[in-house]
Amino acid sequence: MFAEINTFLNDLIWGNILIYLLPILGIFFTVSSRFVQFRYFFRMFNILRESVHDKQGHISSFQALMLSVAGRVGGGNIAGVAVAITLGGAGAVFWMWVIALVGMATSFFECSLAQLYKEKDGIDSCVYRGGPAYYATKALKQKWLGIVISVLLLITFGFAFNATQSFIISTSFEASFNLPTWISGTIITIVFGITIFGGVKRIAKMSEVIVPIMALGYLLIALVVIVLNIDEIPGLIMMIITEAFNPSSAIGGGIGAVIIQGAKRGMFSNEAGLGSAPNVAAVAYVAHPVQQGIVQSFSVFIDTIILCSCTAFIILLSGVYTPGVESVQGILLTQNALIEHIGPFGGYFVTVALFLFGFSSMIYNYYLAENSLNFFSKGNVTVFNVFRVLCVLLVIWGSFQDLSSIFAFADLSMGLLAIINLIVITILYKPVLQLIKGYERQLKEGKTPVLRYNDYTEFNIDKETWKEIVDNINDKKTKE
């Protein structure tokens, strides 16, 4: 009975509410901001290069981006895209791209808000905290709403998703290398424990190392596949576009199934609007909230337009996929496709990639949970350490225990979180538009934008936090 209720609610939230709400609001944010995700796309590279990261040990814009990508990029980039293609055909890839491009604007709005309403960490004065719970509490003055958001984040990411990721990784290594789950589970748990007990800074540093390796490695193998099949690329792109509007008769459900599968893959993969990424965006030490909004929107691009497309190209160029045939899907389809391209090494590569993608997601998930716990405990070291021990135990337990039912419940709680977050950022879209105007005005004046915090006092921001940041940056410029 519980499973049936859970399935019904999941289908209602993801299949009938978010499937329409996310793209509609994405379009609204895109138009109202005058296509901010495209206008400032290339400026993102300058922001990362010039991001402020002083000797006091603040977390840089680049580190926050890598931590965000660590969360957005996961097993879904390998298995989820394969499922979308199996059920929705090649055309699903096109709608996956569309949902990502409009989702970049949604991510910009929620992450800019997270920066605007951030506050100092209770333990480390060089670390900041923020996210939906913080901007819902401060901007809307609804403490209860912040509590609900924090509880949903804590349960979803801290417990359910991490235990499930551990199971996926350990069973994948067992299938590919005949490695017992208890061995891989123990290794995962030890590395995970060392990382999270080092706090936010160690999590950020670990992401800074893992994410570029896994992203560039996966991109490189996809480029090898593309080069080997370079003559087929124009035809493949035309097929993706054609199938998006006129799907093969073998695809059950017609164009509706194509759009839904592509949109779902985009939503699940890039997490734009779901309320998770803003928690990470808030930690970056930047001079103006818009800077991190621009950078975080780029993480959506990396996840879906680049890495999900890598999986799609690997599958569609291989010949192992047959429209309408569902006998092989998920990770196995991706593995078979890569084996077809480069031989047995392809299967092992997918397993290793899954490990890197999954582990990076685990440390990201933990950070989201810790950030939510901080909303209640305000830097209580004892509470944090007890929570870390509990998370480590869940990871080792999850490495040999199938928790698919818990994962399904986590999908439901994440769906509820997404609906709440989307409503909140829609209500608060005007402060973001004001941030954009202030940022652009300083650019036109030929100045490096910093937040003029006195212009935003009506929004109940933490003025002292921003005063310290701006004064520090101005002092640094004066010395230079």
From TrEMBL:
InterPro entries in the cross-refs: Na/Ala_symport
Keywords from the UniProt entry: Cell membrane, Membrane, Symport, Transmembrane, Transmembrane helix, Transport
GO CC annotation terms, alphabetical: plasma membrane
Membrane-traversing stretches: 12-36, 81-109, 144-161, 181-200, 209-230, 236-260, 300-322, 342-367, 379-400, 406-429
Taxonomic placement: Bacteria, Pseudomonadati, Campylobacterota, Epsilonproteobacteria, Campylobacterales
Membrane association type: Multi-pass membrane protein
The protein, known as: Sodium:alanine symporter
Compartments, record wording: Cell membrane
GO molecular function: amino acid:sodium symporter activity
Membership in a protein family: Belongs to the alanine or glycine:cation symporter (AGCS) (TC 2.A.25) family.
Highest taxon, organism lineage: Bacteria
